[in-house]
Amino acid sequence: MSVLICGSMAYDTIMVYPDRFRHHILPEQLHVLSVSFLVPEMRREFGGCGGNIAYSLKLLGGEPLVMATVGSDFAPYAQRLDQLGIRRDHIRELPEHYTGQCFITTDLDDCQITAFHPGAMGESHRNRVADVKEAVELAIVAPDGRDGMLQHAAQLAAAGIPFIFDPGQGMPMFGGEELLTFIDQADYLALNDYESAMLQQKTGLTLDELAGRVKALIVTLGAEGSHIYADGVRHDIPAVPAAALVDPTGCGDAFRAGLLYGITQGWDWPTTGRLASLLGSLKIAQRGCQNHAFTREELASQFQAAFGMPLPD
Asked: Is residue 3 a contact partner of residue 140, using CB atoms and an 8 Å limit?
């Protein structure tokens, strides 16, 4: 069975500033901020939350189905998906738009300044879950167009398809009541620590209260690992030291692919969380969101070395 991934497809233009933003941004002058950063290193990568999650899930042996809207410049990405064996039946091309474009500048502290042009992503509501005829056992609603996220969550809930709600950078688009509706429709909720704080502020609920509304609440904490709240228990998932700290962009998407795979395999939360943690570590050691790679044997060996336990078959 397939995993439906409702999320953005985008091109990422990634620039590296060989200094630290904090050396050149004066807090007392933020009201007249005007800065320019020389970025001698630049590259273009395939990205978007939907595309990134699908990439890692396919590496794991899962069957991702991406539901997204893209623009007239999508041909190189389409060719890549075909080469990877990732189906694009539910990726709608809109010739009057560009595919989403993300411009990311990262400094030596791994701080990021990002500008995003949504392009065709803003039309994601034109895709409907009812149009998916394949058998779907699990889904994720990841950052996408506002209307698309609202409608896809409601459609998944109406269809009885369990899903992860991953608001990510899309959280500022929604008010507290809308976020609570998402949470009550979803089976799982995935956040990073900043998003967790923002969600508590917007909803007025504590983490324990939020966890009580879903089967599992997952909060990633960067180098501190992650917490998974499920069945009244908090599972503390350790981080995996990376071979190198190269590029944090897309680590959360790789982590979520691990969650999706573990859930569909019926694994317990400590095992699922550890797989997700390992994927985030493998991703951060590579530039770009979709350049990490591994075989099943390599993954099993790294899992054993990291956690002292075998990766389930």
From this structure: yes
pTM, 2 dp: 0.92
SS3 66: strand
Distance between CA atoms of residues 150 and 156, nearest Å: 10
What is the token pair recorded at 271? 């095992």
Q: pLDDT tens digits, residue range 120-154?
A: 999 999 999 999 999 999 999 999 999 999 999 99
Q: For residues 111 and 19, is the Cβ–Cβ distance under 8 A?
A: no
Between the alpha carbon of residue 205 and those of residues 90, 146, 176, 188, 194, the distances in Å are: 36, 23, 10, 16, 15
Cα–Cα nearest to 188, from 158, 170, 161, 206: 161
Q: Report whether pLDDT(111) > 90.
A: no
For CA atoms 118, 119, 120, 122, give the dihedral sign: positive
Instruction: Point out the catalytic residue in the list 12, 166, 253, 313.
Output: 253
Secondary structure (3-state) at 56: helix
Token pair 């890549």: residue? 80
Sequence-distant (≥ 6) Cβ neighbours of residue 118 within 8 angstroms = 8, 100, 145
pLDDT in tens, 267-279: 999 999 999 999 9
**Rg of the chain, C-alpha, whole Å:** 19
User: Which domains does the chain show, CATH number per domain?
Assistant: 2-9+47-99+121-307 (3.40.1190.20)
* Closest by Cα among 167, 194, 213 to 111: 194
pLDDT tens digits, 180-222: 999 999 999 999 999 999 999 999 999 999 999 999 999 999 9
Counting Cα atoms < 13 Å in the Cβ hemisphere of 53 gives: 31
110 flagged as catalytic = no
